[in-house]
Records
---
Amino acid sequence: MSDREFSVRPARLADVPAIHALLRAQAAAGNLLPRTQENLVRHVRDFIVAERDGTLAGVGALEIMGPDLGEVRSLAVAPAFHRQGIGEQLTRALIAQAGVVGLKRLMALTYVPEFFARLGFEVVSKDDLPEKVWQVCVKCYKFNRCDEIAVMLRLDAPAGAKASAGG
Ligand SMILES: CC(C)(COP(=O)(O)OP(=O)(O)OC[C@H]1O[C@@H](n2cnc3c(N)ncnc32)[C@H](O)[C@@H]1OP(=O)(O)O)[C@@H](O)C(=O)NCCC(=O)NCCS
């Protein structure tokens, strides 16, 4: 197996402690919102993981926010595995899942819009995200002082418009 090989698969309940540890470290660094193990157990079916040689290298989740809107949540790659294409592969897998269930829009709140731009996401106003704001943001400790950037990928755009999200 080469240095860059890893596999992406649906998360299992047995992954929850490792997912929790990875997200907790990123939450402590201010990059993500914290999630409890109990919350991760309840939402484990939203998650996919990337692993190499049995080590959890990255995670990401697709959460359905409304009849046509999904969110990429809790996307994190362990620092030792950064810039090896794992985050991109996880996000492409979540985009594919969003297409399979019939979502028309996929959003994320992020400090790294450049990462999402490569995959066809565009920066949008948070005012365009009412479902997100009312369901989740009102419960968030950052509400009213949120400095994350909203990005959106239209999954129903003409083929040419989302060519960069293919692959
Ligand atoms: C953002 C994150 C998931 C990227 O994961 P990764 O596996 O390192 O990213 P990839 O290797 O797939 O990057 C693909 C491309 O995205 C861009 N990119 C990746 N990380 C970037 C960063 N921090 N800043 C700007 N661009 C970035 C680069 O163009 C990169 O290609 P390159 O390495 O050839 O230059 C990872 O840095 C991370 O876990 N960050 C902390 C948590 C976080 O911010 N999550 C996003 C919340 S929505």
---
Amino acid sequence: MAREKKSMIGFDPLAWLDDSSDSKSAPEDNKETPAAAKKKPAEKQKKDTANMIMVLGHSIDETALLKGYGLATDVLEETVVDFYDELFTRYPAVKPLFENTEEKAQAGKLAAALKLLVDNLHNEDALKATLTVMGERHQGYGALPDHYPVVAELLIASFKKIIGRSWTKAISAAWMELLVAGAETMCAAYKDEIVEVESVEPEIQETESVETLVDSGHPVLHLNSIQDISKSQALKHDMLALINDNDEIDIHASEVERIDGSALQLLCALFNYAHQNNLVINWINPSDILKESAQILGMQQILELQ
Ligand code: HEM
């Protein structure tokens, strides 16, 4: 969706680290003349020396990374709570992915994920193998490649918020680099989207949902009776076609008998986009099932289905 494009696609996960930060932890930065070192306050001289290692093709300051790990393991529960709060407030469209998630169990899962990354920093084969399996699972959860930078940024921001000043910019930079490296390997395990598109394409012909006629004169997005993940690609295709050229559209939804989280998530993205871009969306006879499903997932407000 266009809105996601603005906030996610093209997102530079490191952009928020400013130039003046101590995140410039390349070994060169730590080279200094003895005279220069003498002039520095004692605290500066005690600063940990960066130890750059290569992990999955990324250069990472291991010293900062391990220091961050030590700090993070003490505050996992608070961090998870803060992280989910921020994630769902800022990106409500991802909430359905976590509909079966017990927040309390997530601290343990986060602990396991961080430990796995840290334990295998020097064992790239094991790291790759585990991340590949995790990537396959995440594709099944509905996690999109565009979600990864957002999750990485918010997780690191939560650690920073909770830990405070001891969580330095060098630590943020090291963790961002590791999470980006991990995300790349996880996403590389995703099944080729082209295969999915090809398998869905005939369906686009059969279940064509965009109509340009209607009483109101606006183009119509026609939701299918079963609107699930198998039709999400087609739905996204139709939504993109509609928003490019129109100021007002109708969604015909009287026939919806079943709609899953992936379809609702797409619709939320459409409404968020509409909100930001003055696109008017009119529901035409939304079915009770659609309204109930949106209500169960807490999306009725975003979808203006109250
Ligand atoms: C480097 C990035 C990430 C790491 C290391 C990671 C790690 C994990 C781990 C260890 C689990 C536990 C279950 C499993 O291993 O399959 C998990 C579950 C999950 N993750 Fe991630 N994740 C990452 C990114 C994401 C992203 C970007 C999303 C999408 C918003 C996401 C959504 C989920 C969901 C929906 C679950 C299932 C939660 C449940 O157990 O109910 N993850 N993740």
